[in-house]
Records
---
Amino acid sequence: LILGICRYTYQTTSSVAVFVALLLAVATVLYLSLKTRYNAEIHLKVEMFLKTYGTSKPTRYTFSEVKKMARRFKEKVGQGGFGSVYKDELPNGVPVAVKMLENSTGEGEVFINEVATIGLIYHANIVRLLGFCSEGMRRALIYEFMPNESLEKYIFSDDSNIFQHLLVPNKLLDIALGIARGMEYLHQGCNQRILHFDMMPHNILLDYNFNPKISDFGLAKLCTRDQSIVTLTAARVTMGYIAPELYSRSFGGVSYKSDVYSFGMLVIEMVSGRRNSDPSIESQNDVYLPEWIYEKVINDQELVLTLETTQEEKD
């Protein structure tokens, strides 16, 4: 009897194991099939977009050319939500930044958004897209190189030597005005209005002279200049900079003013030297920066900011 029970248990366990193995195999095949179909759809969508834009877009490079430029991707200078960034050189020696897009959900949309927006415009305060690569599922975006990295590095740094770069007379004001000019051009100076939807210190790059350039148009939307309200199926903007109307329509319709809200939050961070939301602060009331400023203002209290003023600025 015991032998029969053991044999039955063994057979049952074996059957379950075989069933689980078959289930995993079917799931794997189904996943690979869906992934292949999704990749094919994205590739077709990108190629149709590139044919539509014809020769009005930046230079198109092959993947082997990008690989040669990037010296086999050895000098990594950054990591973003949609891929890694490498420092490279064009054949003529001009330094560039190459963003290798990862094969993730939305990556095809990011590529199209970037080429469709900054690929067709030029402004002193908007980073230039010099070229791109789209070969199968391998896609890259080639930008002008910004040696001083992002504004985020400077306004939130604990290193006083790094922060000193922004303490020269009017430098922060110049940076804020430069960002505003770039944003105004996107909203008013193009044939189609470009809404950025991700205005934050990390996406403001600084050139050799610390001139600001708006970057990262992966979430951008195009609309006609007479279109006051924009329809969005989903908003993936960064929390802390998101305008209220982007997460609740009860605050009104989404428009270019959503970028203005994000810009205002960015400026507050620039002059305060702290992030708009800082969990490390002991007082719960001081965690959210705008709320902290509001409380100070209505109570007629002095705003003590991290940013120090040089003697030359005081004079």
---
Amino acid sequence: MVTYNILIEYDRDGQKMLTFPRRINSFNNKILVNKEEEGMVVMLDYGGKFHWTYKGCERRVASLIGQKTGKVLHHTMRSGDCRVCSIANRKGEVPRKHKCSKNWTGSAKAMEPDMVVQMIRDLKEQNVPISELAGDDDSTGYNRAIKEMPDLHMEKTSDRNHVTKNIVNKLYSMKPKHKELSVMVINAITRNFAYMVDQNKGNQTGIENGLRASIDHIFGEHAHCVQSWCGYLKDKTTYKHSSLPHGKDLKSLDLKSDLEKLFLDKLVPNSKKLANLASSQANESLNMTIATKAPKYKHYSASSSLSYRVSSAVLQKNEGYSYVSEVHESSGLSPGTETLKRSLKLNRKRDRKSTVSKTREGKKQRLLLKKKRSSKNSGMEVREGKTYESEIGLEHPDQEEIPEVMEIDKFDKEAITVAPLLVFDLETTGLSRSSDIIQLAACSKDSTFDTYILPSQPISKEATNITKITVRGNNMLYNSKPVNFKYPHQALTDFITFLSEFSCKPILVGHNIKRFDCHILYNALRFYNMYSEFCSHIIGFVDSLDVFKHVVPGLSSYSQTNLVDTLLDETYAAHNALEDTRLLFRLITCTSQGNVISDNITDFIFSSNYPHNCHMHQDNLTTFSEAINCKALSKATALKAARSNLRLCHLKLSIIERNGLDGLRAHCCPNLRIKEKCV
């Protein structure tokens, strides 16, 4: 195979000029031809997309790369501009003698076929045979080469990436016409086409049958399917499509008709080409290398600088990063010790990356990352709405943003291990979560906090019977004896001050707090805009009820009174907050079970934001009432959506205005099922 590389340019008179000095050029121009080969397959690509150094520049780069070795056989450039000539023309002077970068006077589109003809002719003059030219079908370069050199024995094959891209573009152009042609279906069709082409390399008949089967298969017709890949033929009773919505066959006859026009009427006649597709991915890799050496934000196009940069990219592709030292040596310079070390390191990195990318695991990882990026972008675009579009500033765009799913709080294991335990308890005006706090107490190993709070609502009879706390006029009484009390704002402020005095943030422990006390405390603190300040002084909560159910299973009752009687063999005056906290602290630290909280804290700790999230979930759930009542949405699904921080208006926004059901799946989850009457 060949690693031949012609580095030539043309001056204003059309005379060939060497890109490098003679010694460097002789290093780069080397032919390693296998004399036993009758011809070789080369891959062709044009680098206009990457190599324009500013928008509208009249310059193109084309390259030929051997299929087996992946080496650049030849590259050439066309430029319609020269900075020296342009400056001289503006001044009305004759250009000084220089190395002119302008070698083209025709249109930019005509550059590509001209470069193809030149490269093939140059290789022919060097007796380098070409049996097959692989590239896209967007240029007449191959036809012109055959016309100008009729003795060439060379075939043209299409580039797989361009063929697939053209099919995807046509499918997306059909999408507005067919409701069933979602993004998920387009991806499934494209994937099936890629698998079919891979399985039928060199098999023209297999391509023709595969094109028919790939369409019939997704519509539930399996007469042309093959058992090696068709799951329906293997198990007709339980088979479901793995990449179609809900695993079901497509139904639209209009969609099937249009797909048949695309795949059968247009692609079947070209089955011979499809059976012998090649890839110009190596050329695209070279284009990216050139883009790093001649970035778009720098204007190298009107000078000979670009030719050196492109040539260095070709050397890097063929020889690796060691080309710098070899060029230095061929010029009579020191190769450089550090340069050699650096090039060796980069070559090893490139080889390692190339090896991994060719493995099955590497390819799967690449597809997985691509899927994650696509899914993330789709979800974000649906959530954010239209943010950038032509003339969007002249319209009145939908600016409502769908909220993100609330993240699960993570705890620092080291912090929760050393955090002190603070047991707290509340007494309230009633048994509902909207009740007021009438007593707040907390107890740790070395300190206690206790205060009575004057409520803004009356204390229920049930609460009075339980707590023995009453309010008469401006007095609070416990067991009919007056007690000192504080107003809610002052009491909560004092409690936060008490929390701030701990050297390490404490963990608040309570009995049945996950269902009751946390929410009462949250409502009180939120009313005075103090909940954020409160959360900044604690790590989280632990509900001792859940812990004791785990540590001491099988009890008839897990009330605090029964736990004290069973584990401590004591009785006490329940429903006094201070006494409750003291007994609960003894329960969790001084029983035969050991320190039940510390031993199980990582499994039962929950975030200080938990009551806020519950409140938000409940608000979200109430918006789905109408949809649940008309059975458009199950309560379980509505609850999942509510816990994902979604309201019914967000689902409507996703479906009606932002990409239909695909938008809903992109933002929520791919398996979410919802009936149309919900919207």
